[in-house]
Amino acid sequence: MSLSGQGKKQRKYQYEAQSASFHILTPREHQSNNQAAYTFAFSKQLSAAVRNDLTDAQITFDQLRNTPDALESLQSRLFEVVHTNMLLAPCSGAFYFLNTTVNDSLPDKSYSGLYLKYANIYAENTIHNEVCLFRGFSTIAREKDINLHSTWQLETLAGSFPEIDKLMSDKKEASSDSYFLTPVYKLPDTWESVRFFCVPILDAYGTTIGVCGYEISSLYFSLSLKTLGSGQAHIFGALLTEEGDHYTGQIAGNQSGYFPPADPTFFLENEADLTTFRSKDTEFIGKIQEITIGATDHMVAVMLPAAEYHALVQTVRLKIAAFLFIASFFILISVLWTSKKYVAPILKGLEQIKANTDLAQEESPVLEIEDLFAFLAKQDQDHAAALSALNQERLEAQSKQQQLQGKLEQVSNDLGSAQKGIARLAYSRQQEIDPDDFQYFLKGIHQLTPTERKVFDLYLDGKNAKEILTILSITENTLKFHNKNIYNKLGVSSRKQLLRYATLMKHQK
Predict the structure, then answer these.
(1) What is the pLDDT of residues 443-489, one digit of tens each?
(2) Which numeric CATH code is attached to 23-220?
(3) Which residues pair with 198 in a beta bridge?
(4) In the predicted structure, residue 4 carries a pLDDT above the cut 50
(5) Which end of the chain is least crowded, N or C, by CB within 10 Å?
(6) Which fold has domain 433-508?
(7) Cβ proximity of 155 and 101 under 8 Å
């Protein structure tokens, strides 16, 4: 009953998990497709704006390097492109980095560009949030009347985002395989964790001169992609990326208001139907589904706290038990009613059969019982004839029994001779055994643990190792461990020697 209940609960939870996964996956795929369109449009606008600015300034892209005034002028011109695309796309920030810098003599390489972020995000709708400057010239913030981020810097250090460094050096033209969603990064000098939708910025010759895209912070992700309401208030989702032996990512909230107290780093154990997720000391149970965004593979997961899952399984077991109890009660009532209406007259007729000898003269209110009386009267006559035949067979059987008795006595004599032979063989074996070793064996039996004694007794019963593993429900390594302890305590070196001592011990008893 418990297994059935658990199975039904698992199927119910799997349906809810798959449903929740669908509600996370569908908008995530739809949003990623839209995000790709926004990002490619953003890249084209930036590419055109950079070309126009360079043409107006009558300089090449390479001449921007170590030219702060030209880079500042370019950022001022591109601000509206970045700001407008940031307002249009579902994101927590927008940026572009160019493969150039205001000062390439510094020891650490960096990228010049604008990086705008929403400040104090508290809902999916960011229309009323203030915009701040995270990277770029501070004069741009004063010019556009926006605040500087608390950890503002002029440029973005190379190496902060490895995937962006790789894309910056890639010479391919912008296409679907150059667009991707990065893993989760710890934003430098902040408490925030973010992902980036990235695509290259190209010059007129198709050469990559920079990277642009959108920021999706973990906070914005949790607010914008909430698990839809289901039968479980604490079910939630996550977008994870594989990193070695574990997965990290961003966690989506729940429309009920629940947000899991979980670190976004998970270790997974896949089972037949469900997956176990472990995050620090917390365990969850759920479903997973792979998703490809651009050129990168990710995984959507929907999960529930393991303690709550097991409690739900127990609740279903109790409901099934209650249902079976009620069903059994109604079945019992039905049986009692049927017995009173149909079985009672039959039992009354059977009592008449037991109390009367002349069944042919009896009558019964039940037609079937009356027919039975007639049938039994005929049976009595047949039985009398059969009884005579059985007496004759009994006499013949007694004669055969006497013959068999003689043969049995002969077999008994043969058995006695065999037992004497066994005793002589045991005595011969005893002479081959060292008495001290045998005494050590007898004393060692009392030193065996309960489990070791069970293994010892099973060997004496003729069980092999495979049968013992099945009977005791232990692993092969555990059996080897017990065998080693048994051999050491009994002073034997093989199973054959153990059985020889055990045979001698039984014979002495």
Answers:
(1) 888 888 998 888 888 888 888 888 988 988 889 899 889 889 888 98
(2) 3.30.450.20
(3) 180, 213
(4) no
(5) C
(6) Arc Repressor Mutant, subunit A (1.10.10)
(7) yes
